[in-house]
Design brief:
alpha+beta, 387 residues, OB fold (Dihydrolipoamide Acetyltransferase, E2P), 10 strands, disordered C terminus, 5-stranded mixed beta barrel, 3 domains, 15 helices
């Protein structure tokens, strides 16, 4: 990797526009068509499909961040197909996968760049544009910018669309930034202080959960879920309000089980945080009595849990830890693998069926909200903390 201090950033910024166009053309090859259509459908744009800015953002994410079936991104495949490019350009292209997407306040202009403060992670970014000086002229000091940034030679480059808002729109921008922070805790974690604070808040929140329910795993009747979680939320609010001055984000749960769910498993894991699992009772019954796999409803529910990326590996580890021999019997019957042994084969099975859980770094599920955004939280998530 080239030394950042020796890289000609001006040349890279100038070249980046042409490389982005080449990358876009590369992505239009027939072999990427199905993947792009899937990414477009997942974006759920609806009527916004006619909104050019929204479509550009979807395309930018597809180029730089979407994982293809082989585990690689389009930009990684583009780089592999272009060994003719100079090393600094190859490094820059691969670096574009490290996207900072957010809401920024303009701190100041610096000739050919603008210094931005991210409202969520509270870090500053010196950003450039390959779209001409006119883009930066639309960003006066104290205005706001909604955009995506990618690294370039130790600085940052605007990628995709740019939404600019005058300083007088502060309240609306803060409300939007608070919403984004609540919806995606990961946005704050580029700041190591925020990440450490989120782990601290999650540990405290989990301790409150265990004190209230007597365990970090609770199985509730579906029709009791709302009342029991509401009681827990209120207990949390009372405890937090006792030792923290100022406005508090209300603690609410965005999760609502299916109306016909008979049971819901609620697990507050040390690493993965708070999780809700519909019809957990059926799966729990199977691990207590593997013979229940003869029943279609039990068999299908365990298969659903095994194939669902939103069900983390720790759910199966917890169930298997109760009795490893019965767990082995479950998977022998379920997978028709007579020699399966949980102690020997369990982790390999989880890695194969839930690869994303092992590829991604562990992150807390707590949203860490900067103090200035707390009053603007309108639809927070269950786990919320102030930074």
């Amino acid at each position: 990797m080239p030394d950042v201090s020796t890289v000609d950033i001006d040349a890279l910024v100038e070249r980046s526009g042409e490389l982005k166009r080449e990358l876009l053309e590369f992505s239009r090859r027939p072999r990427y068509s199905r993947s792009f259509q899937a990414a477009l459908a997942a974006a759920d744009l609806g009527s916004l499909i006619t909104d050019e800015d929204s479509l550009i953002t979807v395309v930018d994410r597809f180029l730089l961040q979407h994982r293809l079936r082989n585990g690689r991104t389009v930009v990684e495949e583009f780089v592999a197909a272009r060994p003719d490019l100079p090393e600094p350009e190859l490094t820059m292209l691969l670096g574009w996968q490290d996207v900072v997407e957010g809401v920024f306040e303009v701190v100041r202009r610096e000739r050919d760049a603008v210094v931005l403060e991210n409202l969520v992670d509270e870090l500053t970014y010196r950003a450039r544009s390959n779209m001409g000086a006119a883009v930066l002229r639309r960003m006066p000091r104290r205005s706001f910018v909604v955009t995506r940034l990618v690294p370039v030679g130790g600085e940052w480059l605007i990628s995709g669309t740019v939404g600019t808002f005058a300083a007088r729109r502060r309240d609306a921008v803060y409300r939007f930034a608070a919403q984004e922070a609540m919806n995606d805790p990961e946005l704050a974690f580029r700041n190591p202080t925020k990440l450490a604070r989120a782990w601290e808040l999650q540990r405290a929140d989990r301790e409150r959960f265990v004190r209230f329910f007597g365990s970090d795993l609770v199985v509730m009747a579906g029709d009791e879920f709302d009342d029991r979680m509401r009681a827990f939320r209120e207990a949390c609010r009372s405890e937090i309000a006792g030792d923290r001055p100022g406005p508090l984000p209300p603690l609410v749960s965005e999760y609502s089980p299916d109306d016909d769910a008979e049971t819901v498993g609620v697990i507050y894991d040390e690493d993965d945080g708070l999780g809700f699992y519909v019809e957990f009772g059926l799966v729990e019954e199977v691990f207590a009595d593997p013979a229940l796999l003869r029943r279609r409803i039990h068999r299908q529910r365990v298969l659903d849990y095994l194939d669902d990326d939103t069900v983390p590996p720790h759910v199966f580890r917890r169930l298997a830890a109760r009795n490893e021999e019965r767990a082995s019997a479950v998977f022998r019957k379920l997978l028709r693998r007579p020699g399966f042994d949980w102690a020997r084969d369990g982790e390999e099975l989880l890695r194969v069926r839930k690869p994303q859980a092992f590829d991604l770094p562990r992150r807390p599920s707590i949203s860490v909200i900067p103090d200035r955004l707390v009053p603007y939280v309108s639809r927070p998530s269950f786990s919320a903390g102030r930074s």
